[in-house]
Design brief:
It is a single chain. The chain has a domain of 184 residues. Helix 1 crosses helix 6, helix 3 runs antiparallel to helix 9 and helix 3 runs antiparallel to helix 11. The chain is built from 13 helices and no strands. The protein is mostly helical.
């Protein structure tokens, strides 16, 4: 993102999100829930305290994608319904920069919410656990970035705000809830005969599944996944980096193409 106009768009998006009551309420909710998890870990017995980080991972898997999708779903369609999209596209910046400014401004707001939540949880736990919780922030930012990018793409596709909101909720249910349920149902239906490589691929291509399984494997070991019936070998760091890059940049590239097409049609 270069140029004063692009920077001004980023700051405008960030200031709008920081004044958004919904964003403030959800940020407060995440801080309270994360603090509660941290307090439980501190008050629990020594053996039970080890569940603090996995519990935060589970909480983030459900809440962060929803927040990111809602943050991104009205990025373009909101401008369209306010009849300001034409003015926005007429600015002396590329169509890709407009979309990127929307993504970066809202992404900073999301990053602040995530950092506040994990920071509050870290303050509640014993000092020996704080480093492990802070280490969860970068992967959670990747998770939020992926779903924020999907939300921006939804906003580029939808013609009405209500349609974009419905699509965002549907995507959340599909990728966060139904994906794992479908995988477990396939394991049960086939009596566990699904090849492990297939399970690994299906889990990894979903950003929520990649985040949850990779971190749970790092925090609790592969044995914990086996107890859940998921005997998988997670991809290496290089493959995981490529998957995160695809999920974050791919939807943005498609959304930019849609904006370019709209510009060509309107001119």
């Amino acid at each position: 993102m270069t140029g004063r106009v692009g920077g001004a768009l980023v700051l405008h998006e960030l200031s709008e999100r920081l004044r958004d009551r919904w964003v403030l309420v959800v940020t407060l909710l995440f801080v309270l829930l994360a603090s509660g998890v941290g307090l439980y870990g501190r008050a629990a017995e020594e053996g039970a305290a080890a569940v603090t980080a996995p519990s935060l991972v589970t909480l983030s898997t459900f809440l962060v994608p929803l927040v990111a999708l809602v943050l991104g779903h009205d990025a373009i369609v909101g401008e369209r319904e306010r009849h300001t999209l034409g003015l926005l596209l007429s600015l002396p910046v590329g169509r890709g920069e407009v979309l990127l400014a929307k993504f970066v401004g809202r992404g900073i707001a999301l990053a602040l919410a995530i950092s506040l939540g994990f920071g509050a949880a870290a303050l509640m736990v014993a000092p020996s656990q704080q480093r492990a919780l802070i280490a969860l922030v970068p992967p959670t930012l990747l998770l939020g970035g992926a779903f924020l990018s999907i939300g921006v793409l939804i906003s580029s596709v939808a013609q009405r705000h209500a349609t974009a909101a419905s699509l965002a909720v549907a995507v959340w249910f599909l990728l966060v809830l139904f994906w794992d349920l479908g995988l477990l149902a396939a394991l049960v239906a086939t009596d566990g005969s699904v090849p492990q490589q297939v399970i690994a691929v299906v889990s990894a291509v979903n950003p929520a599944g990649l985040y949850r399984l990779a971190l749970l494997e790092r925090l609790t070991g592969a044995a914990a996944l086996q107890e859940l019936g998921l005997v998988v070998r997670m991809p290496g760091a290089l493959v995981q980096s490529a998957l995160w890059t695809a999920w974050i940049l791919g939807p943005l590239a498609i959304g930019t193409g849609l904006l370019m097409r709209r510009k060509a049609v309107t001119t």
